[in-house]
Amino acid sequence: MIKSWSDLDYQPTVARIVTNSLQRNRIAHAYLLDGMKGTGKKDVSYLFAKSLLCKDRNGVDPCQGCSNCKRIDSRNHPDVHVLEPDGNSIKKQQIQFLQEEFTKTGLESKRKIYIIEHADKMTTNAANSLLKFLEEPNQETFAFLLTENVHQMLNTIISRCQPLSFRALTSTRMVDKLVEEGFSLPLARTASHLTNSLEEAVELCRDDWFALARNLVIKLYEALFTRQQQALLFIQEKWMPHFQDRKQLEIGLDLMLFIYKDMLYAQVDKREEFVFADEKEQIEKFALQTTQQRVTEHLSYILQSKSRLASNVNPHLLMERLALNLQEGY
């Protein structure tokens, strides 16, 4: 979670707009935070709420220590209301309840804040109710609408909000943020290629399952080149017990794809693109033992396996077939 606006250096435009507004005390009554999952929209909405309600603000930054900051962090501040979809949508009754709450006097200050997550999932009736709310804003009421699909929202709602557009993080920037969080460079590089969501990447890096998955991919890769007779046994005894469901197996196949791409990068002298940079010497060694055409065929086998995984194919048979294909020619 970001603690100050300087932490938002990966979204410089958003940080500049918000800090300028806070410095000049020219806060819009409604903001539309639009961007892909994991780009920081939720963190920004809560940090903004703390900047608006903090009792001991340091410039534009909340102190993080007062009762208001702490209660916003714990999601139990009486003047900060968060709305999420009830099932698949945000319903009219939820917006009406919000409106009723905002007719009451703030318990801690005159200011009241509401945050609507997945605002694009409002029903038509809910969106129309919110529109009336936005058209007649209270001076001390502030709204934050979060969405990953701004094109699905009413233009009339969009036009009444200050837009804050969040960019997807580049792979390089995500690696930097993950390393700042204390994760190893190899783990950070791998996670950054699996998702463009910083939040999801952090969850992956914190998961011991993911670190072990990465190691198993390296070991299977080694076996396919140096201990071919053991590769099928490795799949049975080590691989399948770890990659137990289709989502996990898909991650395993993605990691296999990355390490074989690294072979191709070694052959075309693009080593800076390596995902498994910590395995550089071994990858370069194996790359010398085959051709670009053969590596391209291997990449095709892995992609075919990913495609077949989406159907009801037996995962164990799929991996055995893939291993046999990857061993051909050695």
TrEMBL record:
Matches recorded under InterPro entries: DNA_pol_HolB, DNA_pol_III_delta_C, DNA_Rep/Repair_Clamp_Loader, P-loop_NTPase
Pfam families: DNA_pol3_delta2, DNApol3-delta_C
Residue intervals of the DNA polymerase III delta subunit C-terminal domain: 241-327
EC number(s) stated in the UniProt entry for this protein: 2.7.7.7
Keyword Nucleotidyltransferase: yes
Transmembrane domains' residue ranges: none
Protein name stated in the entry: DNA polymerase III subunit delta'
